[in-house]
């Protein structure tokens, strides 16, 4: 593998000139820059990230803090779309990502603590959970900028999030317009503020229609398919089961549909089902899943773009919620007067 001295010798320039070209610095003629770049391309030279970082006092590495276990992360299509959006913007800036996850589900803050002990990152992106406050305080003492994907507890914290409230409001209104009044909800034991906002949207839509919330129609999962199946069985086995259920993510909705089938219920004839996320599996079901689409890729790219603005000393625009959209498919239908 060629090094910077090899490139300098072949291009007949000094190593310092090669360094200027690599780091896109001025005071190199166009002809010399073109010659060095041609040699780099022909030799396959890859500049050392560490050397480049030292020359401009940056590491060219972003920290990505996702306070879930690796099993939770890599089974969640929405989080993977979020990562894809962050990675796309990082690549545009010739940056790498350093991923940190929680060792255990109950130890979400460990991801942040481990990252903060390292001096390798130029800035960090944090996926918000209910445990974000402990590492918000820790990060406030650091010089590196950071951005939250989700809801910041402190107004001065840069954050990007989807319109969770609006999406849940739309979805619940849709079920109400179909005639459903006993609407079940599968929420989550994990409490990112997005879940709070979705529940608030549901409550407000019910209140608009004069429907009192019923805690007996609420069950909890953990965003997994299995938990949706378990919660769905509990709701559907009740003496007065719901005629429609809103699962606060698509994977729990998939588990719910499996539970309904096991109990001999047809979707949407006997039960209407709505999810949230619009993962790719939502369109592969029969019937396809009605769901709230949230822009995972766009959330990631917006967070990364905001972080690079901070790194470059640019002022951030006021935060705005990225829009969500209700996608009506085949899993919802009018309530039947008699359910068999």
What labels describe this entry?
single chain, alpha/beta, Rossmann fold
Describe this structure in words.
With 340 residues, the chain is an alpha/beta fold. The protein has 3 domains: 4-38, no CATH class; 61-162 and 297-321, Rossmann fold; 164-294, Rossmann fold (3-Layer(aba) Sandwich), CATH 3.40.50. The chain is 43% helix and 15% strand. It is built from 13 helices and 11 strands. It has helices spanning 4-11, 15-22, 30-43, 49-56, 70-74, 77-92, 109-116, 132-140, 164-177, 193-208, 225-236, 250-262, 296-311; strands at residues 61-66, 96-101, 123-127, 146-149, 159-160, 183-188, 218-221, 244-247, 272-277, 290-293, 325-327. A 6-stranded mixed beta sheet has the order 7-6-8-9-10-11, sandwiched between helices. A 5-stranded parallel beta sheet has the order 2-1-3-4-5. α8 (132-140) links the parallel β3 (123-127) and β4. α1 packs across α2, α7 (109-116) packs parallel to α8 and α9 (164-177) packs parallel to α10. The longest helix has 16 residues, at 77-92. The chain is elongated, with a radius of gyration of 25 Å. The N and C termini lie far apart (71 Å).
């Amino acid at each position: 593998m060629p090094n910077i001295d090899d490139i300098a010798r072949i291009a007949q320039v000094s190593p310092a000139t090669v360094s200027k070209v690599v780091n896109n610095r001025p005071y190199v003629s166009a002809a010399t820059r073109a010659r060095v770049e041609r040699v780099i391309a022909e030799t396959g030279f890859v500049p050392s990230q560490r050397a480049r970082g030292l020359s401009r006092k940056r590491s060219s590495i972003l920290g990505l803090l996702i306070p879930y276990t690796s099993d939770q992360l890599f089974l969640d299509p929405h989080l993977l779309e979020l990562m894809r959006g962050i990675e796309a913007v990082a690549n545009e800036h010739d940056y790498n990502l350093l991923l940190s996850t929680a060792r255990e589900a109950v130890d979400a803050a460990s991801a942040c603590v481990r990252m903060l002990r390292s001096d390798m990152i130029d800035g960090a992106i944090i996926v918000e959970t209910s445990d974000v406050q402990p590492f918000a305080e820790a990060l406030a003492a650091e010089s590196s900028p950071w951005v939250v994907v989700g809801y910041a507890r402190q107004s001065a914290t840069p954050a990007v999030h989807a319109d969770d409230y609006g999406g849940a409001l739309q979805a619940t209104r849709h079920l109400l317009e179909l005639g459903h009044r006993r609407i079940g909800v599968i929420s989550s034991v994990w409490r990112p503020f997005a879940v709070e906002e979705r529940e608030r949207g549901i409550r407000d839509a019910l209140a608009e229609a004069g429907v009192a919330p019923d805690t007996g129609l609420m069950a909890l999962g953990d965003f997994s398919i299995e938990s949706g199946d378990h919660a769905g069985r509990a709701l559907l086995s009740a003496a007065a089961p719901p005629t429609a259920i809103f699962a606060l993510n698509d994977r729990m909705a998939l588990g719910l549909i499996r539970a309904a089938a096991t109990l001999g219920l047809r979707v949407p004839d006997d039960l209407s089902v709505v999810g949230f996320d619009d993962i790719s599996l939502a369109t592969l079901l029969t019937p396809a899943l009605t769901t709230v689409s949230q822009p995972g890729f766009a959330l990631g790219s917006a967070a990364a773009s905001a972080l690079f603005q901070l790194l470059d000393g640019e002022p951030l625009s006021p935060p705005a919620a990225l829009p969500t959209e209700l996608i009506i498919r085949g899993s919802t239908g009018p309530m039947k007067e008699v359910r068999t």
